[in-house]
Amino acid sequence: MTWLKAIRDPRRDPAACTFPIEYVLMMALIMLCGQLGSRRALARQLGLGRIGSNLWRLVGKAYGDLGCHPDTMNRAMEVLDPAELEKLMVAVVYQLRKTRALDTFRFDGKLIVAVDGTKMFTFKKVHCEHCTHQTKDGKTTYFHCVLAAKIVTPIGLIIPLAFEFIENPPAPYDKQDCELKAWRRLYDKIRRLFPRLPINVVGDGLYAEEQTFATADQAGWNFVITLTDDKLPSVTAQLPPKSASWSGHRTERVHLPDGGKTHRWIDRTVRWKTPVHYHGQIYHVIELEETDEKGNRLYYNRWITNVKPTFHNAFELAQTGRLRWKIENEGTNTQKNGGYEMGHAYGRKGNAWKNYYYMLQLAQMLNDLVRLGDYIKKATADPTASFTAVFAAMETFAMMLIAHLRETEPDFDLLPGSGRFQIRLGFP
Ligand SMILES: [Zn+2]
Questions:
Q1: Which residue of 158, 331, 335, 376 is 20 to 30 Å from 325, comparing CA positions?
Q2: Looking at residues 64-93, what average pLDDT do you find?
Q3: Dihedral (CA of 226, 228, 233, 234) sign
């Protein structure tokens, strides 16, 4: 709450506003955590019960039933500087690091940060002067895309780190903005917001290029970037044709739960070639393959990295590169299809859509901290309780969260983060 109060109120005369900025932001957060899907659905819920007064209690004031109209929230979101919410995300990351909650998810002592571009909105007509556009068969489509850097973990918890919107400068411009250009800006932003954060940066084949490698080296970051056959031909040419003559390899037999009650065995093999030379620098290539008992290939990928693979780190190094898909799967897909309705414009004017996007990142993280932390066990005083056993799915949790705020007066002192509950995360 202190964090929300620290946000600079963009409205002309904040003191004259009935609803302080922390109330407005809490309202947006509840809408997104509760997966309400639209401002209209929020308005409906606000008309029904105690959500308005519970919001006042959440921000530490007792103004009774006076509820804020979602349009008022939206107007504040239109003028709020998104940089204010970036500060909020920085505070969250520092807090999580301070409590050492993320320590078990590091590789080589560094957190794993995946970088990925995503299309947020597509329009048939131009939406604003910053839209990027593409013309195909005489038809022009307009987009807003975002480049996201998120901390990824094997358990599926995703922590928002920093973002850069892919958008054109005011006309006239020579070339449109693009993912790689946004990546240069995002790199600078991460260095500025988190100057001492050591990371492993993981990304798809787009990032297999000289400048990404050089800047990662400069920052003291590790990189593990997908290497496709066609991307860096001079590197691929240095790879031995037969797997047996690579610099090293290692195979382990792994027991995987197969969804239901059955289990299966797979063979997991890593191979590495070290060194490979690229633009006068020394890097390494590692690949990972999984096959079933019959020898059918289940998974294959190859990465270029500045971490020297050894017999001891090879599996972990390859799995680090592999974590990249989490940003697509558990990050973006969940936000588009998992009830958070990212494609739905909660508000398209001014800064609103950027601010809702940032709040959405925080909402998903908060919900996932409940899903993956030990809050449910503590709240039910049952050490065997699990999120799945209690709520079955996130959609149910979101619905019950809203119902709870509508029908009851919860004891907010018992919320995670108030000191009584610690978020402990770990492998299940
Ligand atoms: Zn636009």
A1: 376
A2: 91
A3: positive
Contact 67, 93 (CB under 8 A): no
- Expressed in angstroms and rounded, the spacing between residue 356 Cα and the centre of ligand 1 is 15
Task: Please state the rounded mean pLDDT for residues 303-309.
Answer: 98
Tens digit of pLDDT for each residue in 252-284? 998 877 655 566 889 999 999 999 999 999 999
Centre of ligand 1 from the C-alpha of residue 81, in Å: 17
- Looking at residue 427, what is its pLDDT? 46
Phi first, then psi, for residue 169 (nearest 5°) are: -70, 170
DSSP three-state, residue 155: coil
SS3 22: helix
Q: Cα(286)–Cα(304) distance, rounded to whole angstroms?
A: 7
| Burial degree of 124 (CB within 10 A; 0-12, 13-18, 19+) | exposed
pLDDT band of residue 417 (cuts 50, 70, 90) is very low
CA angle 327, 369, 43 (to 5 degrees): 90
pLDDT above 70 (res 422): no
152 CA → ligand 1 middle, Å: 29
- Name the pLDDT band for 406 (thresholds 50, 70, 90): confident
The three-state DSSP-derived secondary structure of 64-92 is CCCCCCHHHHHHHHHHCCHHHHHHHHHHH
Q: What is the mean predicted confidence (pLDDT) over 4-24?
A: 87
**What whole-number distance in Å separates Cα of residue 221 and Cα of residue 330?**
24
Q: Kindly state the tokens that stand for 107.
A: 């590789």
Q: What separation in Å is there between the alpha carbon of 176 and the centre of ligand 1?
A: 13
